[in-house]
Amino acid sequence: TRHSIQLLLPLIGATELDDWPGGTNQMMEAASPLVQNMLKLMDPTSISVATTESTSSSSSSSSSSAASLDIQESIIEPNDGIRGIFSQATNPIDDTCVVLLPS
Q: What's the pTM value of the predicted model, to 2 decimals?
């Protein structure tokens, strides 16, 4: 499944003359942590699942830690700051890849 997502970036290092004095590289540095956090939130092993036992009316929740997700980042084009962000989960079907492009 493919998705195209546009993010509003927090301004870092903005001046009176230019919001992004570092250009696209600076934009990608601001976007990378946002995308990595989004990948962590999408990890199915980090979601708590409520289960109900048939012998009692109470429910308990069980959750796994997000440590099962390995996120790696690679700079594809240094001049423009284009990055590839890869998350590898315990189950290969949950692996994801993001290409971070400036616009």
A: 0.70
